[in-house]
Write a structure and sequence with these properties.
This protein is α/β, with parallel strands linked by helices. The protein is about 40% helix and about 15% strand.
Length: about 325
């Protein structure tokens, strides 16, 4: 089955990453290995380009989303998100019973109304994915807009899960804005989705607030080892990113040439407008052993039901996907 539905990397972890897992696996009887943890923080600091006192690690960036909602609840705040946003957030908002408001992205090209964002930000927590999921485009590029929002908001959680594919980051602003939290993951570019590791870049003030809501020792020893190994193999990561970006651009060009509308992506996936409801074609692709994400199947995103979100795989996988997609669209 071709997995183009979860935004995973089509490439395996680096050999160095696997070697480090083996190296530290005999320490799984321990909750914490100080030497490993410090080495990991130092490597993350070098990679990100900020002092390690601005970095903290978590058991996946997804766990930060529930931590963020807990923060919203205990500070008696409301949260502002874009619509559309990461589909899991809609159910979490309901389950956590947090007050929320949406900034609707434009329907033609999914751009962000920064004026509306500024208007809604007063005293609230802001959650933005940049580039956005599921739309794949960059929502915010101007640091001055972020500064203006930060002056009004209680806190900003800026999700840079796709940073390696966009090259855009606001990480330097954490030293200036004490209410900014940047969320990162190793699931995509580092080929470590199954390791479940994320990290934040944040002011010491926000790190302290969030640490108070955590039990601690959540990140397994072997996960820390895997990430340390990946960080020490930067050539492999760059190679993976370059291959995915090249396949992404080639796939988009072929789909556009075939008459489909595809948003310009700065992520490891494509947002494809089929021009008609996607469920039928999603089912036909599945019968051809290709898994994609059809927004018609998602209750809160049915209004975008013409769209498929398609993870970028290897070139031969994307060629197979294009061939089958164009075939099923004629049925």
């Amino acid at each position: 089955m071709l997995r183009l539905h979860m935004n995973e990397s089509p490439y395996p972890p680096s050999r160095t990453s696997l070697e480090y897992i083996s190296k530290y696996s005999n320490l799984l009887n321990l909750y914490h290995v100080e030497e490993l943890y410090e080495e990991l923080l130092n490597e993350l600091s070098n990679y990100v380009g900020v002092d390690k006192r601005f970095i903290d690690v978590l058991a996946s960036s997804s766990s930060l989303l529930t931590l963020m909602l807990t923060y919203v609840k205990i500070t008696d705040s409301a949260i502002v998100l874009t619509h559309p946003t990461f589909h899991v957030m809609y159910q979490l908002l309901s389950n956590y019973r947090v007050q929320h408001a949406y900034v609707e992205l434009s329907r033609d090209d999914f751009t962000l109304d920064t004026g509306k964002l500024l208007e809604l930000s007063e005293g609230r927590v802001i959650y933005l994915i940049n580039p956005n999921n599921p739309t794949s485009n960059i929502l915010l590029e101007d640091p001055e807009v972020l500064r203006k929002v930060a002056r009004r908001a209680k806190a900003i959680f800026l999700d840079e899960a796709y940073y390696e594919f966009s090259g855009l980051t606001f990480k330097d602003l954490v030293m200036e804005l004490d209410n900014l939290v940047i969320i990162r993951t190793v699931s995509k570019a580092f080929s470590l989705a199954g390791a479940r590791f994320g990290y934040i870049i944040a002011s010491e003030k926000m790190r302290k607030h969030l640490s108070e809501l955590r039990i601690g020792y959540e990140v397994p020893i072997t996960t820390q080892a895997a990430v340390l190994g990946a960080l020490r193999d930067p050539h492999y990561v760059r190679d993976v990113v370059n291959k995915i970006v090249e396949a992404r651009e080639e796939t988009r060009e072929k789909l556009v040439d075939a008459g489909l509308k595809v948003i310009e992506s700065k992520t490891n996936f494509l947002f494809v407008n089929l021009g008609k409801p996607c469920r039928k074609y999603w089912e036909l692709l599945k019968k051809n052993e290709i898994l994609t994400l059809c927004l018609e199947n998602l209750e809160r995103l049915k209004e975008f039901g013409n769209y498929l979100r398609v993870t970028v795989g290897k070139p031969e996988e994307m060629n197979f996907f294009i061939k089958k997609l164009l075939e099923v669209l004629t049925t």
